[in-house]
Amino acid sequence: MPGTLTRTPRWRSVALATSAVMAAFTLPTMTATPAGATTTAYDSTYYKNAIGKTGTTLKSALHTIISSQTKISYSAVWNVLKVTDQDPNNSSNVILLYSGVSRSKSLNGGGVGDWNREHTWAKSHGNFGEATGPGTDLHHLRSADVTVNSIRGNLDFDNGGSPVANGGGSLKDSDSFEPRDADKGDVARMILYMAVRYEGGDGWADLEPNDQVNNGSNPYIGKLSVLKKWNDEDPPSAFEEKRNQAIYDTYQHNRNPFIDHPEWVEAIW
Questions:
Q1: How far apart are CA 189 and CA 266, in angstroms?
Q2: What would the DSSP string read from start to end of 80-131?
Q3: How does 208-220 read in b/e, with b if 16+ C-beta sit within 10 Å?
Q4: Cβ atoms 269, 203 nearer than 8 A
Q5: Are 174 and 89 in contact (CB under 8 A)?
Q6: pLDDT tens figures, 217-233
């Protein structure tokens, strides 16, 4: 079992014990991935009703917590992404999902060379479109190159495929899309946020991950086993954490719990 780790919202550390120390102090065996427990400044306030829970009980508690949010229009998303996705090294640009390209904020639109609003949880998976609600939820909307976004389409996520042109290392085959390594954890945590936030009780479909591809218009996205692995292999970055904070402080006033507590992915699924 993984040991207990402490992580502030901007830093994550993993303590690897040697076999000699483990023998002397009878420490638990550490995994090779950063799956240990974390703590955040929000545990005693925002997450207080979720701390210590697991499984469906944890999922239900988090659903209640994050469902309290301010909703925005789809047209407003353009300007929000210029803030949440801002390049930390160039305030005139945004960082694009999948490709990792830094592009001018002014190049938002629908043409080749522009960036647009990518629904990481494809809007056809549950048919929620662009209506206020899951269609405008900032925790899964990201700026993305128009062409790369079109290539991803509504494909499920899985490993393998051929390189995507200008995709930063992303791959695609006939039934799935694999983001570049630096975005894999981001994608996993966005997808699993959506699965907790939208449970079917507020007029929207019950969104759930499964271990399949070719989910079509069903309210499912796969593959869960792959997303879990990506969450472990690509821990939350400073970019993700800053984005989560901006959405919480300024726009929706809710958080993606899997950025704050990536170990909750394994605790639920």
A1: 12
A2: HHHHHTEETTEEEEEEPBTT--EEEGGGBSSSTT-EEEEESS-TTTTT-TTS
A3: bbeeebebeebbb
A4: no
A5: no
A6: 999 999 999 999 999 99
The pLDDT, as a whole number, for residue 9 is 45
178: β partners = 171
> Alpha carbon of 144 to those of 8, 19, 252: distances in Å?
29, 45, 21
Lookup: tokens for 64: 């209640």
221 near 215, Cβ under 8 Å? yes
3-state secondary structure of 61: helix
The DSSP output letter for 36 is: S
Can you tell me the distance from the alpha carbon of 14 to that of 26, in angstroms, rounded to the nearest whole number?
Answer: 18
CA–CA separation, 232 vs 262, rounded Å? 8
pLDDT in tens, 155-206: 999 999 999 999 999 999 999 999 999 999 999 999 999 999 999 988 899 9
Give the C-alpha separation, 36 to 14, whole Å. 8
86 vs 77: CA distance, rounded Å: 13
